[in-house]
Amino acid sequence: MKKWILGLLGLCACVMCGLAGVKSASYVQDSSAYVSFGIDIHDIDKVIESNAASLLDSQYVRTLQGKRLLAIADIANETSEDIDVELMARKLARALRKSGKFTLTNAIAGSGAKADRFIKDSRKLTKDPNYNQYTTDEQDTLQAPELSLSGKIAQRSKKIGEVVRVDYIFLLTLSDIKSGKVLWDHEEIISKVADPSVSSEMERQSEDKKLLALRAQCKNDDEKACRALFEKGDIQGLKSACERQVGYACAAAGGHYDKNNDVKQATLWYKKGCDIDNLLSCASYYYLIENYTQAFKLFTKACDGGSMVACSNLGFLYRNGQGVKQNGAKALELYGKACESGEKYSCFGAGLTYYFGNAGVKKDYTKARSYYTKACGLDHGDSCYNLGLMYANGEGGAKDEAKAFDMYEKAFKLFTKACDGGSMVACSNLGFLYQNGQGVKRNGAKALELYGKACDLGYQDGCEAYKQLKNAGY
Predict the structure, then answer these.
(1) For residue 367, how many other CB atoms are within 10 A of its CB?
(2) Longest dimension (CA), the chain
(3) Which terminal residue of the chain, N or C, has fewer Cβ atoms less than 10 Å from its own Cβ?
(4) 51 Cβ neighbours under 8 A, 6+ residues apart
(5) CA atoms within 13 A on the CB side of 196
(6) Range of the domain at 435
(7) What pTM does this model have?
(8) What is the per-residue pLDDT for 289?
(9) Which of 381, 349, 386 is nearest to 369 (CA)?
(10) Which residues neighbour 353 within 8 Å (Cβ) at sequence distance 6 or greater?
């Protein structure tokens, strides 16, 4: 494994920033002299060169007889950079083809490349009476790939003194499709350092690009993208997609207002989604107007259709006996199903059910801690806080004050992010942490400020906490 460390102290992160004072343009003879923060074309070339050399020198390739048909699968970009993974994958495939050991298929591909749509479309001409069948492609002529190239690109940042070091980790894997065996894998790390302001500006620009991309995908009826906008608190993106008749976006917009206790706005956006026949919107709308029987029917239908959010909400109805006879066991069954799919609110619901032992379920701190742990791992702030309390009190396992502090600290960070995004509940929760010195140094004045913000946003519990703290002399 190779590692490059490039010093960029004082350099501008953005190429356009560096050109601000240039009055005329000129060709660059050697662009490697101009290093940028973040991943650039030279970094990609180094990664490709190193990976190609590693693969071609592997035991698998050195003993390989004949050519193998290769497909480019998914390459996940988990960094804040706008990396063209298709370009990277294509360059690597080109290097492998030159070895004479591999052939690339364009008939099937993942996120690391685009399949050639015309290969599929041309086969539609078979048996089309408008075409001479002697000139069309025959059926069953496509060759299935034997190998799959996949991978991911991760990013780790660390402040060291007055600078920030960012590690970009490239991990690529070659797998045998028939057996599933890993034939080769390779890790490459590129590290760069820069002034913190440069790093933060790059990340901000990258986040802006990602947000715009998510908005475009949501408008194209991509439920996963709409869900991501909901998690980010991007209400404008959700409302815009809803106006474009994207049903899940309407449900998510309603959910945004719902969790912030804005019943009027939540009802409005749920109704918009229901009007275009989105089941989740309709079910949420009927729940909000307290028609629990109808909400139960619609959540059941949506859950059966594969909506894990609906399954989580259905578990809530069973737990509270709304629209259906109370049944804690059924609630846990639904919570568990949704939790396994990564629906963090259902993990939290299961944790609450086991912790308090309601709806006919016996208290089980061990299981409660397990579900809170999973929800906290999915960045659910309330779960992180509850988990901190369990560690502090030794509930469901050994008492661990250090671990409790870690959980409070994570909850603090999540509440801060949500509060900055306009969540009045998060602002109130953050105020509570400041008031009690959990995950942060105790600060009554800051707690009062946050309770006031929550109150101004319309959260009644925040108003009550503000009044009590104010009466206490803050």
Answers:
(1) 18
(2) 91
(3) N
(4) 92, 170, 172, 186, 188
(5) 6
(6) 400-474
(7) 0.60
(8) 94
(9) 386
(10) 319, 328, 331, 332, 335, 359, 361
For residue 445, the domain's CATH number is 1.25.40.10
Q: What is the pLDDT of residue 114?
A: 73
| 379 and 352 Cβ atoms separated by less than 8 Å | no
Split into its structural domains, the chain has a count of 2
- For the chain (474 residues), the mean pLDDT of every run of 10, in chain order, is 40 38 62 69 88 92 91 86 83 87 86 75 75 72 88 86 85 92 93 73 69 90 90 91 94 91 92 94 95 96 94 95 96 96 94 93 96 95 94 94 93 90 87 91 93 89 91 86
Query: What phi and psi values does residue 118 have, to the nearest 5 degrees?
Result: -70, -25
> Alpha helix (H) ranges present in 276-400?
279-288, 292-304, 308-320, 328-340, 344-356, 365-377, 381-393
pLDDT at site 88: 87
Residue 175 counted as domain residue: yes
d(CA 137, CA 123): 6
| Angle, in degrees to the nearest 10, between helices 460-471 and 424-436 | 30
Are 151 and 54 within 8 A, CB to CB? no
Last residue of a domain, one of 196, 220, 235: 196
Domain boundary among 196, 215, 243: 196
Give ∠ CA 425-431-433 in degrees, rounded to 5.
110
Those residues with Cβ within 8 angstroms of residue 29's Cβ, 6 or more apart along the chain or in another chain: none
3-state SS class at 400: coil
- How far is CA 212 from each of CA 80, 135, 209, 220, rounded to the nearest angstrom? 14, 44, 5, 13
Instruction: Indicate the burial class of 43 (C-beta count within 10 angstroms; 0-12, 13-18, 19 or more).
Output: buried
114 touches 239 (CB < 8 A): no
* 451 in a structural domain: yes
The verdict on residue 271 lying in a domain is no
Q: How far apart are CA 419 and CA 126, in angstroms?
A: 58
Q: What is the pLDDT of residue 138?
A: 66
Examine residue 242 and state whether it is found in any structural domain, yes or no.
no
CATH number at residue 192: 3.40.50
